[in-house]
Amino acid sequence: MENQLYNLIEQLEDTIEQGKKMPFTAKVMVDEDQLLEILESIKSVIPHEIQQATMVLTERDRLIEDAREESLRLVNNAKKQADQMVNENTVLVRAQEYADDLIKKAQTYSRDVKMSALKYSDELMRNLEIKLESTFKALRTSREELALLGQEDPDDEDAEKSA
């Protein structure tokens, strides 16, 4: 159909070119019926041509809109993926920080428990040492008293000999 309109325009040009020139003017005499017939044909073809052009424009607009929507969808998906990656990275960083914190707390707790155990053991040994020293003093005192008792009573030995 697009060639039909072009062909009709060429016919119109040919008709004008074949027209008889008026002497001493730039005017041309043409067959009025032939021109009107060509113009009528052009009128009948133009609506169809306009309709096709409109369809082409509509299709072009639809394709552009589809492409725009697809590009928006791709951009949104890319943003979502980037956000997800950032969130995953954030979660990973937070998990690592939490793990590091737990390790530090566990090390501190372990050190505190160790120090408490050492302090408790030292206290038990000190108390045992004090009791042992007290026991040793009591033993020494008892031995010294026994030694003195054994030296103080020489008469008892003489009395035992005479008896």
Describe it.
- The protein is mainly α and 163 residues long.
- The protein has one domain (2-151).
- It is built from three helices and two strands.
- It is rod-shaped and about 195 Å long.
Topology overview:
Blueprint lengths: L1 H17 L1 E2 L6 E2 L2 H121 L1 H9 L1
Antiparallel strand pairs: 1-2
Short recap of the structure:
With 163 residues, the chain is an all-alpha fold.
Biggest sheet, strands in spatial order? 1-2
Number of domains: 1
CA-CA gap between termini: 165 Å
Backbone structural class = mainly alpha
> How would you sum up the global shape?
rod-shaped
Profile the largest sheet.
2 strands, antiparallel
Got a strand count?
2
Q: Can you tag this structure with a few keywords?
A:
single chain, 163 residues, mainly alpha, 3 helices, 2 strands
